[in-house]
Amino acid sequence: MSKFFNEFQNKWEYLSKDVDLINEYTKDHFDVELKNINVYGKDIDGVIFNGATFDSVEFNGVSSEKSIYKKTKFINCKFFNSKYWNSEFVDVEFENCEFISTNFLGSKFLNVKIKNCIAKESEFDDLTGSDILVENSIFKERSSFTGSKVAFVFRDTTLSGVNMMGLELKQPLLIDGGLLEEVNFGHSHFSTVTLQRVKQGDGPIRFNSITADTLVFDDVDLTRGVGIAYSKVKLVKIVNGRFGAAFEGATIAKVVARDVYLVNIDFSEAVMPSVSMNHCELLDLALWDSTIIEFSIMDSSINIANGKNFKGDTVVWDSVTLDGKIDFSNAKIEDFRPTRLKRGPKLNLITTGSNLKF
Asked: pTM of the predicted model, to two decimals?
């Protein structure tokens, strides 16, 4: 530790009485450090730190609005009831930190890393900037990222009871590993969203009323309620794992599913030009009052399907096993091509009022 580290900490009580005193000191002394202290009730609005390190510091009731933190590290720190509104964080790392009722509303985050942290009832709303990595962390109990315009990567992180509505992302959102429950991405606008190796807790995950180019679910275990209702997406891709979702009222250019267990897939009232399923197991498929222009299912099985009033142009089912109650009453398909169909022992096929011939 350099003499400047010791000097800054020794002078902290005096300097922290006036933010101008802090900034005058940090202007000439980079790489300052505070360690093992409690910063309580300080008003340091407009403070500037460049290359600082805060190690095992407790920020309690601190106001640091319109402040600048560059190349700064927060290690083993705790933030309680503190405000960092409209501040700037550039090349900043939070490691083993805890955020409780702390607010970063309207701040700019550029190349920020949050690792091994816990956040409760903390707001990261209306963030701007780019490149936020959240890794091995837990965000829960009404924490939020609403209205933010940054590129997020969540890796091996738990999001529980987190509000992420109204995101405006021009770059991809990646959620790699971890657990999601009671997370709402509704009314957001994405480029590409990718969830891979993600598991679901007890609560639902909502992508309702979003727009996106691509929405990818890769090797996920999400079966307790994923909402994609009333969304507008060019491509939804589902590969491997277990997945269930409601697409009610959605407008999706193409849905592709491959090598996946699909449970409670609800296409009811949805309008989609193209749906393709290969090597899938479908349990409880809802198609009532939906329209799918081109619909192909190959080398798959369907156990229970409600296709009342279903409409389609070209429907190709090849090497599909039908079992349970398969109800396509009043369905209308222009070109139905069933080949190599297999009938399971519990098949109850209903085609009353339809033009389908199996």
From this structure: 0.92
